[in-house]
Write a structure and sequence with these properties.
Structural class: mainly alpha
Oligomer: single chain
Radius of gyration: 15 Å
Largest sheet: 2 strands, antiparallel
Order of helices and strands: HHEHEH
Shape: globular
Strand content: 5-15%
Length: 89
């Protein structure tokens, strides 16, 4: 029998996932003919640590304040629109 248990580091993601789940529940359902999977290209991507992601998604910290902890590629305006859309206030 196999059991999966989150590490303490993994538990740091819990508030972020809960917040994204709440945001996603507000999305209206719509029919789609596009299969789910990897997109051909990304509009924007980010890489940071769990505390940096929490700062962006939950605390509303501006990306510029994360400095070297945040690496982005693509259109930063798209990233900012996503952060604005999931802002708690």
């Amino acid at each position: 029998m196999f059991f999966y248990e989150l590490t303490e580091w993994g538990h740091d993601m819990a508030p972020i996932l809960v917040h994204l789940g709440r945001w996603g529940r507000q999305s209206p359902l719509k029919e789609t003919t596009t299969p789910l999977g990897e997109p051909d290209r990304w509009d924007a991507a980010l890489r940071t640590d769990p505390a940096g992601l929490k700062a962006l998604v939950i605390d509303g910290t501006p990306p510029v304040r994360l400095g070297e902890r945040l690496k982005t590629t693509g259109d930063r305006a798209v990233l900012q629109r996503l952060l604005d859309a999931i802002a708690t206030e």
